[in-house]
């Protein structure tokens, strides 16, 4: 227990959520990657790859949660780097699944959009914490400028990620108490642009889109399939190329029932093209049942609640907005993935954080968890201390009051939001 207490500092609820989701991920990835195992003739290769990334993410969390959160403001420097990487991706990115979202450097593939998401969350938290320096209008313009540039660079090849990122940034601005007149004007422009885009996808001929913006054809097909779906008569339903993924996801959910077929006994993993990524939630329900599906959903809901509790305990604005931004990025993406699996929204390419098979997305999600734990330790005072350490530290007082206490001599203890600092008198 002493070793566990020393290694796993910060909010233990967040640690438990990470452990539970990681365990579910390993089991379900091993089951859902059957099609990849057939191709490589090695049952262990896909899950070993995922396990290596998960292990690397775990060590990242161990590292990051020991770093005081104030140092994460340096991640703002990744924002211009992300802009350059996203621009390069549009020009010379690797084409995978009919979209150019990947860059390859020295044989390593990664998604620049994941780095951009992290840098943008840190940037918004940093700007919102500078109200004592800049005006509200100035802060709003800088945030909108950064969000607009990043989202427009992501949009052509990854519409769902651009929408997800904009939604999280919008929610973070709302939580950050940006004046409602700015929020309202932004929402009006967003509704207008969204309406024009929807009308364009519905009525512009497919041949025109194919000639000028080929990626829009994919969006058009997804919108049409989602809007025009009908409830078929009994015995007349047919699975076609248009409804293939959604149909097999629904079959998986129905087969799961209450308690599921147990891990390894899923059937639809051999039919769903992205059973280990975009539709892994459907496989979880098939193998673990409605109980397993609700448990996974509950983990993300508890994470968001816990993030809110950590934010309430933070006195520094940067810590508060940083932890909320990281929590929103994980939970909103999870809700999008699960909504696709149960056919609530059109098909997107968003993985389930910490559960779906992935490389860059897994590591960046672990960075979010590490930042949340760092804020819980150094910003909210959730330290998970040893009993001996607790006895030797002075009680914390409010508003930076000085608390003199005798600990082997005259010692002055100064309390602040990041913890306790000692100076020998």
Description of the structure:
The chain has 425 residues and is mostly helical. The chain has one domain (2-384). Helices cover 62% and strands 7% of the residues. Strands 1-2-3 form a three-stranded antiparallel β-sheet. Strands 4-5-6 form a three-stranded antiparallel β-sheet, with no helix packed on it. The chain is globular, with a radius of gyration of 24 Å. The two termini are 35 Å apart. The model is unreliable at 386-425 (pLDDT under 50).
Task: Note the main sheet.
Answer: 3 strands, antiparallel
- Spatial separation of the terminal alpha carbons: 35 Å
Task: Report the count of strand segments.
Answer: 6
Instruction: Indicate the structural class.
Output: mainly alpha
Order of helices and strands: HHHHHEEEHHHHHHHHHHHEEE
Radius of gyration: 24 Å
Helix content: 55-70%
Strand order of the largest sheet: 1-2-3
Shape: globular
Annotation keywords:
single chain, 425 residues, mainly alpha, three-stranded antiparallel β-sheet, 16 helices, globular, disordered C terminus
Write the layout of secondary structure elements.
Elements: H1 2-7, H2 12-32, H3 34-40, H4 45-64, H5 78-92, E1 94-96, E2 99-105, E3 108-110, H6 112-128, H7 136-154, H8 159-175, H9 180-203, H10 206-212, H11 214-227, H12 244-256, H13 280-313, H14 317-341, H15 360-378, H16 387-392, E4 402-406, E5 410-416, E6 419-424
Antiparallel strand pairs: 1-2, 2-3, 4-5, 5-6
């Amino acid at each position: 227990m002493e070793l566990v207490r020393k290694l796993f500092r910060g909010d233990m609820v967040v640690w438990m959520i990470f452990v539970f989701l990681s365990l579910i991920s390993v089991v379900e990835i091993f089951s859902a990657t059957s099609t990849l195992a057939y191709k490589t003739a090695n049952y262990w290769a896909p899950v070993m790859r995922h396990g290596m990334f998960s292990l690397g993410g775990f060590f990242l969390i161990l590292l990051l949660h020991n770093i005081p959160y104030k140092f994460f403001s340096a991640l703002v420097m990744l924002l211009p780097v992300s802009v350059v990487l996203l621009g390069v991706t549009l020009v010379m990115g690797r084409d995978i699944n009919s979209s150019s979202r990947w860059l390859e450097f020295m044989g390593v593939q990664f998604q620049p959009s994941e780095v951009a998401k992290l840098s943008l969350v840190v940037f918004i938290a940093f700007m919102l914490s500078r109200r004592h320096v800049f005006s509200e209008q100035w802060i709003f313009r800088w945030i909108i400028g950064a969000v607009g540039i990043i989202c427009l660079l992501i949009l052509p090849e990854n519409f769902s990620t651009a929408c997800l990122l904009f939604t999280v940034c919008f929610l973070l601005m709302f939580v950050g108490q940006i004046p409602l007149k700015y929020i309202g004007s932004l929402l009006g422009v967003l509704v207008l642009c969204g309406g024009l885009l929807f009308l364009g996808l519905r009525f512009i001929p497919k041949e025109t889109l194919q000639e000028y913006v080929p990626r829009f054809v994919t969006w058009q097909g997804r919108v049409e399939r989602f809007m025009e779906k009908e409830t078929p008569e009994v015995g007349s339903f047919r699975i076609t190329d248009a409804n293939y993924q959604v149909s097999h996801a629904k079959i998986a959910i129905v087969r799961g029932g209450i308690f599921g077929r147990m891990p390894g006994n899923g059937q639809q993993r051999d039919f769903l093209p992205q059973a280990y990524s975009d539709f892994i939630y459907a496989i979880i329900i098939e193998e673990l049942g409605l109980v397993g599906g609700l448990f996974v959903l509950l983990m993300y809901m508890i994470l968001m609640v816990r993030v809110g509790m950590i934010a309430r305990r933070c006195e520094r604005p940067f810590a508060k907005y940083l932890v909320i931004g990281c929590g929103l990025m994980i939970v909103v993406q999870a809700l999008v993935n699960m909504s696709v699996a149960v056919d609530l929204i059109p098909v997107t390419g968003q993985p389930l954080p910490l559960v779906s098979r992935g490389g860059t997305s897994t590591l960046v999600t672990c960075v979010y968890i590490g930042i949340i734990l760092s804020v819980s330790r150094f910003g909210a005072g959730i330290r998970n201390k040893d009993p001996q350490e607790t006895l030797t530290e002075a009680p914390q007082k409010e508003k930076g009051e000085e608390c003199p206490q005798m600990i082997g001599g005259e010692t002055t203890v100064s309390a602040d939001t990041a913890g306790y600092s000692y100076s020998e008198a």
